[in-house]
Amino acid sequence: MDKIDRYRTILMFGAPGSGKGTQGQILGDLPGFYHLSCGDVFRALNHRSELGQIFLKYSSEGRLVPDEFTIRLWLEHIHTLVDTGVFNPDEEVLVLDGIPRNVHQSQMMEEYIEVILLVCLDTEEQDKLIERMRRRALHENRLDDANETVIRARFDEYAKETEAILQYYPTDRIRKVDASRSPIEVLSDVIGVVRFASAEVTV
Fold it and tell me: pTM of the entire structure?
């Protein structure tokens, strides 16, 4: 790639309702970090472009977007951020959530990112996350978050995907944080593990 060798990256993982997007956004507001979610990439897509038309074709048919397309779209978006000066990879660590979603995507992204840390917001108290998602559904009118059957199906899908990814990356780069506590308590631990990793890698 012609930008830099690889982007120094922190991956945020967590079950639905665990707050990985919130924690990622907070990290992204700190000097030396830039947060990007996969949802941001798709929302920024120009639906009149070639990639936009491909995305609309899959989404309108209710099909999952292929990994190759997802990574291509993500890479073009990152290059745009670098070209416009929004993201400075020489001075900032990239914080990603929602991508990679599976081992295949992890393998494809290996060429572009250097994963210095994987933060996994973990909890065995699934009922707490379900209640959290229901409250969010009321505030944000997210009907999919109000259906417990749908929620539990998303948990099962996440568990299968994440288990494989956690086996893919070296264990010394993985830190688990208890996500069942209050957001400020979770944030304290996230900052702690990120600061420890940053001490080993110049930010």
Answer: 0.81
| CA dihedral over 120, 80, 75, 156, signed as positive or negative | positive
Integer angstrom CA distances of residue 197 from 9, 96, 169? 11, 16, 15
Adjacent-strand bridge partners of 178: 122
Q: For residue 28, what pLDDT is reported?
A: 94
Q: Which residue reads 């948990």 in tokens?
A: 155
| Measured distance CA(102)–CA(166) in Å, rounded | 10
Residue 72 lies in a domain: yes
**Which range marks the domain in which residue 191 is found?**
7-197
- 1 belongs to a structural domain: no
Strand order of the β-sheet with 174-178 is 33-37, 93-97, 7-14, 113-122, 174-178
Number of domains in the chain: 1
Residue at 148 is within a domain: yes
Which of these, 128, 120, 126, 96, lies nearest to 109 by C-alpha position? 96
pLDDT tens digits along 89-139: 999 999 999 899 899 999 999 999 999 999 999 876 666 666 766 666 556
Angle between helices 67-83 and 50-60 (to 10 degrees): 140
Calculate helix-pair angle for 126-140, 148-168, nearest 10 degrees: 120
Q: What tokens were used for 83?
A: 């070209």
Q: Is residue 79 domain-resident?
A: yes
